[in-house]
Amino acid sequence: MKLIISSLSGQPIYRQIEDQIRSAILTGDLKAGEGLPSLRHLSQELRVSVLTVTRAYTELAQEGLVENIQGKGTFVADSGDQVMRQHLEDRVQSLLGEAVDTARRAGMEPDRIRGLLDGLLGNRGSAPASEEGKE
Q1: Domain with 44 in it: what CATH number?
Q2: Does residue 68 belong to any structural domain of this protein?
Q3: What is the pLDDT of residues 46-76, one digit of tens each?
Q4: Domain residues for 30?
Q5: Alpha-carbon distances, residue 121 vs 43, 98, 124 (angstroms)
Q6: pTM higher than 0.70, yes or no?
Q7: How far is CA 22 from the centre of its chain?
Q8: CB of 46 within 8 A of CB of 3?
């Protein structure tokens, strides 16, 4: 896992670490059960304090994305999959909200908006290929 830290971003370093690890988990680049670099290793690699990395890992643990196992390290939590699904669902809701707002500004009626969405669902299927046949 390669993290990039910028002293020019205006964002605290622990938050940059946290955001990049969160993103890797939510996009599936880091899988449930996968270990994160040790606090000492990551702090040396990034040339930051161990406390900075500790704070990032602690924030991620409080979100349920990672779990700290005493004497073993920090690992992506199994609940990360649930958190990822919730994150994606929240993102879809936000994007749909923006689309509806745009459609309303364009003067579209609700039935027309529903028709467009139904058309998109019909053309693309109602579930990702990996979800088909699970029911």
Answers
A1: 1.10.10.10
A2: yes
A3: 999 999 999 999 999 998 899 999 999 999 9
A4: 13-77
A5: 46, 18, 5
A6: no
A7: 5
A8: yes
